[in-house]
Amino acid sequence: MRLLFQIDTKDYNPNGTVCFRPSVRAIIIENGKVAMVHSEKYNYYKLPGGGIEPGESKEEALMRETLEETGLKIIPDSIKEYGYVLRKQKGKTEDVFIQENYYYFSQVEKKIESQSLEGYEALEKFVLEFVNPAEAIKTNRNINHGPKNQIMIERDAKLLELLMEEKLI
Q: Mean pLDDT in each 10-residue stretch from start to end of the chain (169 residues)?
């Protein structure tokens, strides 16, 4: 899978403790709009997805996380690799946090199921929205999102820009 870009804050001790957390993200495009999770509490957009659990394939994690966060059920045969983003920054409890974020194009079934949000996701009031990518970028970059991790928010804004540059949206 190709490396799309890297985000390296260089604010960590490279010789310290490391947390490695791979994740997956779904790119679901319908009528020029992208399925995104909107945090109503902090007003930012992110592509649906999350961490890969032990013993889980990337595709299994993609389907599970997308269903949990949005209620959208991915059609397994529609999953196609796009690329990954490498993110390095100071961790919360460890010296270095490294995350490979794997992005996949996906199509979904028409019926939307119920969300199954984790604690912080429910507190942030995650909702599914099909949004114009330029609107999501503008929101992610021009609004104060409080205590949220701006690097994560910028990552998906930059990914949307890349999709637009490559004329995939």
A: 96 95 98 97 96 97 98 98 97 95 98 94 96 97 81 95 97
Distances (CA, A) of 5 to 9, 73, 77, 156, 167: 13, 28, 27, 11, 17
Encode pLDDT of 22-60 as tens digits: 999 999 999 999 999 999 999 999 999 999 999 999 999
Strands (E) located in the chain: 3-8, 18-20, 23-27, 29-30, 33-39, 44-46, 49-51, 72-74, 80-89, 96-105, 108-112, 126-131
How far apart are the C-alpha atoms of 59 and 25, rounded to whole Å? Answer: 10
Q: Is the dihedral of CA 151, 156, 161, 162 positive or negative?
A: positive
Cβ burial, residue 75 (10 Å; 0-12/13-18/19+): exposed
- What are the structure tokens assigned to 13, written together? 């001790």
What's the chain's length in residues? Answer: 169
